[in-house]
Amino acid sequence: ALEALAKRLQFVTVLRNRNYRVYYFGLLTSVAGYQMMTATQAWLVYRLTGSVFTLGLVGGLQAAPGFVLTLFAGALADRTNMRYIIIVGQLASALVMGALATLVVTGLVEVWHIVVSAVLIGVADTLDQPARRAVWPHLVPRDQFVYAVSLNSIVWSSTRIVAPSFAGLIIATTGQLAGDEQVGAGFSYYVT
Question: What is the pTM for the complete model shown?
Answer without folding.
Answer: 0.89
